[in-house]
């Protein structure tokens, strides 16, 4: 996840290493995952029938985001590279494997898909959510959309934790809907920023408007 707006690219970009910014691809992968989770968490699709297919889409997201992480780290982007690295490993790959287990493809049960999550998922989401929350200040100087994506995930993940830990079983559906809507918004912001980075770079000027960073250092 790049910490630079298109306007700041020339001034603050790292030395040319021959590697292009891969952030847009990672953002598209994030959007795919967010849209799919939105559909599942809000009940727009049957979870039991969709869980294995979601695992397939998350596997594709893992391949994309792992590649993006390597490119970002190569380009000395520690915040973006490390964030995409753990997104690809846990949100994508571990999420995909979890879906395959719940579908009965890997372990699980041969009697049919496991539509409900184990509480262990809640503890995993808890650690990932805390990590992202603690890293959030690093994105305060990034493009406005990127910072809002991180904040949206910061809010959505606790609802996933509450849902998976079944803290209030009667509110599980409400927790899922809240998390799903927030993830949909994160996905839309991701697609917007990806388009900004690709289209504006191609034309060398602002074609698609973007949100400025919420924090800009004062000029001395």
Beta-strand percentage range: under 5%
Q: How many DSSP helices?
A: 7
Determine the N-to-C terminus distance: 28 Å
Question: What value does the Rg take, in angstroms?
Answer: 18 Å
In short:
The chain is mainly α. Helix content is 67%, strand content 0%. It starts with 8 loop residues before the first helix and ends in a 17-residue tail after the last helix.
Please, could you describe this protein's structure?
There is one protein chain. The protein has 220 residues and is mostly helical. 67% of the residues lie in helices and 0% in strands. The chain contains seven helices and no strands. The chain is globular. The model has no long low-confidence stretch (mean pLDDT 88).
Helices and strands in order, then pairings?
Elements: H1 9-12, H2 23-41, H3 47-74, H4 78-102, H5 119-135, H6 144-165, H7 172-203
Structural descriptors:
220 residues, mainly alpha, 0% strand
């Amino acid at each position: 996840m790049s910490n630079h707006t298109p306007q700041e690219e020339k001034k603050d970009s790292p030395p040319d290493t021959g590697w292009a910014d891969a952030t847009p691809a990672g953002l598209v992968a994030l959007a795919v995952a967010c849209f799919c989770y939105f559909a599942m968490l809000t009940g727009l699709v049957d979870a039991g029938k969709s869980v294995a297919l979601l695992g397939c889409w998350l596997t594709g997201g893992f391949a994309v985001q792992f590649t993006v992480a390597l490119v970002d780290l190569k380009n000395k982007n520690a915040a973006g590279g490390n964030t995409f690295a753990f997104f690809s490993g846990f949100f994508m790959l571990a999420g995909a494997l979890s879906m395959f287990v719940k579908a009965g493809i890997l372990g699980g049960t041969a009697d049919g898909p496991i539509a409900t999550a184990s509480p262990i998922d809640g503890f995993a989401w808890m650690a990932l959510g805390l990590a992202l929350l603690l890293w959030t200040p690093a994105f305060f100087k990034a493009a406005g959309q990127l910072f809002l994506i991180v904040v949206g995930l910061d809010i959505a993940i606790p609802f996933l934790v509450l849902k998976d830990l079944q803290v209030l079983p009667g509110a599980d559906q409400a927790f899922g809907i809240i998390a799903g809507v927030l993830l949909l918004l994160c996905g839309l912001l991701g697609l917007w920023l990806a388009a900004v980075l690709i289209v504006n770079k191609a034309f060398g000027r602002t074609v698609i408007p973007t949100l400025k960073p919420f924090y800009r250092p004062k000029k001395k």
